[in-house]
Amino acid sequence: MFEEAIMSTNIPNIPLYVGGKTVQSASTEWRDVLNPATQEVVARVPFATKAEVDHAVADAKQAFASWRNTSLAQRMRIMLKFQQLLRENIAPLAELITREHGKTLPDAEGEVMRGLEVVEHACSITSLQLGELAENAATGVDVYTINQPLGVGAGITAFNFPVMLPCFMFPVAVACGNTFILKPSEQDPSSSLFLVELAQQAGLPPGVLNVVHGGPEVANMLCDHPDIKAISFIGSTTVGTHIYRRASEAGKRAQCMMGAKNHCIVLPDANKDQAINNLLGAAFGAAGQRCMANSMVLLVGKARSWLPEIVERSRGLKIGPGSDRKADLGPMVSKAAKARTERLIGSGVEQGARLLLDGRNCQVAGYPDGNFVGPTIFSGVTAEMDIYTQEIFGPAMCVVELETLDEAIAFINANPNGNGTSIFTSSGWSARKFQNEIDVGQVGINVPIPVPVAYFSFTGSRASKLGDLGPNGKQAVQFWTQTKTVTARWFAPDADGGEINTTISMK
């Protein structure tokens, strides 16, 4: 198995996965996969050729002919086996995530568990894919719907959740009867590939689930290929906008979950310790490399006096390699990501924000080459600063101090993004006002990162989303199926021909 090779001392070439087996790429373009804590090369990933992408799509198209007719019960059994294998392999999956992404092992294990929730949801496909029936909608006429698979689907995922994000896509897609091509991030592909191998072990027929690697050119191939019917993307706004337009112009169904600027309001009646601890976890966990990270903190009224304590608790967080279970923050995924974060921190200082805690030039003993950035906190942030208008995607918290809840709601609603937002309060009235007036798709009440459980849909909104339907929950089933409506009337064998009816009505 590939997971055994990647954890060995040799540097493996990461294969493609086509037709139910690993395939070594013939590509001449390869990229080193680095351990972010050490810069050690842990694998090499190919950028697939057009012929290899075409081969994967052709295998998926061929497999679709029989997979679409596989019974719901059999698809459910495969999903049940897959969730069992996923649960049994939490530890090795987490190790692969930490090795290539850098997040701490406890965080990586939590990621696998969130992916597992989606697979468990897909195990309910026998009820999720049901249609509707109206018997005698007109005299002797029945009308019913059939939710049929689309064909070959594709998924393009970001680096920050190499297991959870693929689970947001292919388990429901294949459970609905589609076949699938996954293009994981080239920065940390090994755990994604291992995940696909586990799904294959669970009983998916060859060709149902495939993996190709690469960068923008491969993504464009998937958008353009005439045999791919739908594309799901999770990543940056720039790339997501391009994917959505290109796929849509090619006649495909598309969903793109994109960038964010998430805010958290803290009212003075909140539980102070709980609120501060949750703020730090939401802002600095995974070194801030989460699309749902709550990087904007809005302290309202007397809660503004909590700022010194927020800074001191942040100063006490431990930074280290992800393999250190006592570490609170691991390294950032790459040198480029670290450089971008530090550049944005510098811009905040230049543009007049008060730098209360500086995470630049962070040194971790024994790891001189690690991509470490420590917790960083700004106050005095305004809506015109780069640290507000851009998604930092690093361990930086920006604090805005306001007088009232109304001011805080207005501040958030003025931002174009709508991925997630939270409030910490002990007032039911304030929480209800917030959830009703806020123009953001996912709301947390005393919950810092409001990603819903997998049987509810991911409902980011506004500039954070393109497409009507999101991942997970009922919307995912709608996205990966085509509703066919059947209107049927059956006549008795000895019925006469009746009269000619030139109207469109049925009674």
How would you characterize the overall build of this protein?
With 507 residues, the protein is an alpha/beta fold. It folds into two domains: 16-259 and 460-485, 3-Layer(aba) Sandwich (Aldehyde Dehydrogenase, Chain A, domain 1); 263-414 and 420-445, Aldehyde Dehydrogenase, Chain A, domain 2, CATH 3.40.309. It contains 18 helices and 22 strands. The protein has helices spanning 2-6, 50-67, 72-88, 90-100, 105-122, 125-128, 164-167, 170-175, 190-201, 216-224, 237-249, 272-284, 307-315, 335-350, 386-389, 405-413, 428-437, 473-479; strands at 16-18, 21-23, 30-34, 41-46, 133-138, 141-149, 152-156, 179-183, 209-211, 228-234, 253-257, 263-266, 296-300, 354-357, 376-379, 396-402, 417-418, 421-424, 443-445, 461-462, 465-466, 481-489. The strands form six sheets. It has a seven-stranded mixed beta sheet, sandwiched between helices. Helix 4 (90-100) packs across helix 5 (105-122), helix 4 runs antiparallel to helix 9 (190-201) and helix 12 (272-284) crosses helix 13 (307-315). The radius of gyration is 25 Å and the shape is globular. The model has no long low-confidence stretch (mean pLDDT 96). Pfam families: Aldedh (PF00171). It comes from Collimonas fungivorans (strain Ter331). GO terms for molecular function: methylmalonate-semialdehyde dehydrogenase (acylating, NAD) activity.
